[in-house]
Amino acid sequence: xxxxxxxxxxxIEEYTKYxxxxxxxxxxxxxxxxLRRLETELKQYLGVKHLKFCSNGTVVLQMAIKALNITxxxxxxxxxxxxxxxxxxxxxxxxxxxxxxxxxxNIDPEKIRPLITENTQAxxxxxxxxxxxxIDEIQAIADEFNLKVIYDAAHTFGAKYNGKSILxxxxxxxxxxxxxxxxxxxxxxxxxxxxxxxxEKLHFYRSFGHKNDDYRxxxxxxxxxxxxxxxxLCVLPKVPELIAxxxxxxxxxxxxxxxxxxxxxxxxxxxEYNYAYYPVxxxxxxxxxxxxxxxxxxxxxxxxxxxxxxxILPFATEKTGVQPCPIxxxxxxxxxxxxxYPDLSEEVxxxxxxxxxxxxxxxxxxx
Length: 367
Ligand SMILES: *Cc1c(COP(=O)(O)O)cnc(C)c1O
Known about the structure:
Layout: H1 12-25, H2 33-46, E1 50-54, H3 59-67, E2 73-76, H4 82-90, E3 94-97, H5 109-112, E4 120-126, H6 135-145, E5 148-152, E6 160-161, E7 164-165, E8 172-176, E9 189-193, H7 196-206, E10 210-211, E11 214-215, H8 226-235, H9 239-256, E12 271-272, E13 278-281, H10 285-297, H11 314-320, H12 326-334, E14 335-338, H13 346-366
Parallel strand pairs: 2-3, 2-4, 4-5, 5-8
Antiparallel strand pairs: 1-9, 6-7, 6-12, 8-9, 10-11, 13-14
Residues 56-58, 80-81, 83-84, 126, 152, 154-155, 176, 178, 189 line the site of pyridoxal-5'-phosphate.
C-alpha cells in the first residue's frame, strides 16, 4: 500500500546511541540535556533567536494565543488543518475567516482589511503546504491596525522566504514536528520568537508556569521528552538530503502529469521551498472523487488536504455564524494531495501520474 506520506526513520543504531545516553543519565524528560542539544541545533539550522521545543504543533498555537493575551476576534484562514481553528476556539477566541488567494490558497490580505473591527486583536495565518503567505502585506496591515501576527508554520520546516527561515516571521511562529512532517520528532513542535522576554514567558508556560519554587504565571504541560529529542537529533542532520530527495520526486510528478486539465498552487516569489506536499487541483469534486477511487483501487491512498474548509465546520459556525469563503470552499473540494515522501519510487510516481492523467481524460470524454 502506498500512503500519502511515510515517516523517515534513522538507522536504529543511531537512535540507540542516544538511548544509551538516556539510560546513563536517567533524565527522561523536563528540560533534559538532549532536548537542550536539539534546541541549540534547531536554532542554528533555522537561524532563529529563541526556539522552545514542545510536545506538539497544536499546544504551541494555544501558547502563542495565550502569550499575546488574545481573547477576542482573530482573523484567520479557512484553508488549513483543523488544529489552527481548534486552537482559537479552545482558547475562547472568535475565528473570523478571511478567504484565500485562488492561486496559492494562502490567506488573501485584501480579504483581511474589511473584516477588521474594534474587537480584532490578531491575524493567525498558515503557510499552506510550506509556501509563504503574503508576509509583507500581512505585516503592513498588522502595523497599521496594531494587530499581532501568529503564523502556523507547521508545514514550513527547512523552507526560506527572502533568505530567512519562514519561522522567523510574525510575532510568533509555530511548527509541528509530527511524524508526517518534513522534519519530525515522532510527536513534537516548537514556538519561535525574537523577543527575549517572550521566550522566557514561553519557557515557563511550557512547564506549568513554574520552575522549582518560582511560580510565575499560569502554564500548561507542553514539555517534550528526551526520547523525542533523540529522534530529532537523528533526523535533523538528514533534513537537507530529505528535502533534496523530495525535490526529485516533485520534479518527476511535474514532468509526468498532464497539466491541461489540472492545476498546481503557485509558489511565492522569493521562496526556497521544502517540497512538503504535492497537491493537485481538479476542475470539480466529481473529477477528484473519480481520481481518488481509481488510485484507491490500486492501493494508493491520496489525501484530501485540506478538507473541509474550516469556516463551514459546525462547531466553528456555532460560535461565528455563517462566514462564506467561496474560494476556500471550492479549493477544499477540488484539491488532492498525492503521495510525497523521500523514498517514494520513481516507478510508483509514474504509475500515479498515469492513473491521474487517464482518469481526468476519461471524465472529459464522458461530459
Ligand atoms: C500538522 C499540523 C498541525 C498540528 O500539529 P501536531 O504536531 O500534529 O499537533 C497544525 N497546523 C497545521 C497546518 C498542520 O499541518
